[in-house]
Amino acid sequence: RGIPREPGARWTEPGCQSCTCQGGRVLCDAVSCSVPCSHPLPAPAGGCCPTCTGCLHEGVARAEGDVFSPSDGNCTVCVCLAGNVSCLSPECPPGSCPSPSPADCCSCAPEKCHFRGRTYAHGARFSLDGDDCTTCVCQGGEVECSFTPCPMLDCPQHQRHLGPGQCCSTCRDPPAPAGCFLDDNGVEFPVGQIWSPGDPCELCICQADGSVSCQRTDCVETCPYPIRIPGQCCPDCSAGCTYMGRIFSNNETFPSALDPCLSCICLVR
To answer: Which DSSP string corresponds to 80-128?
Structure first.
C-alpha cells in the first residue's frame, strides 16, 4: 500500500487486521484480543479490543471503583474493579423477626405462637375456649389478650341490661308510661287526672301515652264590676258587684266613694 515495512514489523490494518512483514511477504490475520477481566468495556473508537478500565454490567457502563446495586439484587452491593464486577449480599442473622418490612434487606418469617396446646400464625386473632368476651392476637411468638370492645350505648344507665353469656350490655325498651311526670322531682299524675298548673283558667289532663294536654278556658260573660272569686277562672257577674275594693250584693245601695252626695246601687243584669 505504498508504505515500506521492515522485516518482522507488525502493524494493525483497518478492520482489526494484525499484519506482519516476513521475507518480503505481508501476512494478515484478525486481531486476537486477550481480555483479562470479566466485565470489560467495549473497544473505544478506533480500537479493536475491549478495555478493562471500567465495567459493563447489565448493559450499563460503570466507572472504575463505582459501587452500585443490581436491578434485581434488592440489598446486594456490587463494585467495579479493573473490569471485574464483584457483588456481596448481606448476611442475615438467624432467627425470626416480629414485623417484617419490605424495605428490610433481611426478609424473615415471623415466629408462630404456641398457646394452650395450639399453634397460631403471626397476626392470627382468636378467642379463648368458653370465653367469647376475650380476643387474643399472635404477635411474633407472643400472645396478647384483651377484652372485646363494646359499642357505646345511647340509653340511660337504668335501661342497660347484661344478659347471661353476653359480653356487652344492651339497651332495654323503656317501660310503658303509667302516668305523666311533670318535673325532675318525680311528681306523677295518673292517666286521666285533671288539674290546674297554677292558672285557674288552664286545665291539663294526663293522656294514656304519658303526655300532658292542656287547654285554656275563655270567659264569655263580662260586666264592668264583676266579683272575682279566688281560684275561679271567670269573674262572676250574677252574685253582685265589686266597687272600690268592696263587694256589694244585688240591689244593695251605698254612698259613692268619690262624692258623698251621690248614692249608688248594684244592679245585676
So the answer is: EETTEEEEE-PPPPSS--SS--TT-SS--PPPPEEETTEEE-TT-EEEE
Instruction: Convert 228-237 to b/e letters by CB count within 10 Å (16 or more is b).
Output: eeeeebbbeb
Least confident of 2-11, 37-46, 99-108, 155-164: 99-108
Give the chain's end-to-end CA distance (angstroms, integer): 160
Summary mean pLDDT of the chain? 83
Q: Please write the tens of the pLDDT for every residue from 49-86.
A: 889 999 999 888 999 999 988 877 667 889 999 999 99
Architecture of the 50-90 domain? Ribbon (2.10)
Query: Scanning the structure block, which residue is given the C-alpha cell 479493536?
Result: 48
CA-CA-CA-CA torsion sign (237, 241, 247, 253):
negative
Q: Which residues pair with 18 in a beta bridge?
A: 12, 29
Pairing of strands 194-195, 202-206: antiparallel
Under DSSP, the state recorded for 41 is B
Domains of the chain: which residue ranges?
50-90, 113-146, 180-216, 224-268
Do 50-90 and 180-216 share a fold?
yes
Bridge partners for 41 per DSSP: 51
Write the pLDDT tens digit of every residue in 102-146: 556 666 667 788 888 888 988 898 887 767 788 899 987 889 988
Contact 114, 122 (CB under 8 A): no
Predicted structure pTM score: 0.34
- Report the C-alpha gap between 195 and 203 in whole angstroms: 6
Report how far apart, in Å, the C-alpha atoms of 134 and of each of 24, 117, 118, 124, 222 are: 102, 18, 17, 14, 77
Q: Quote the CA–CA distance of 61 and 206 in Å, as a whole number.
A: 96
Instruction: Please provide the CATH number assigned to the domain covering 180-216.
Output: 2.10.70
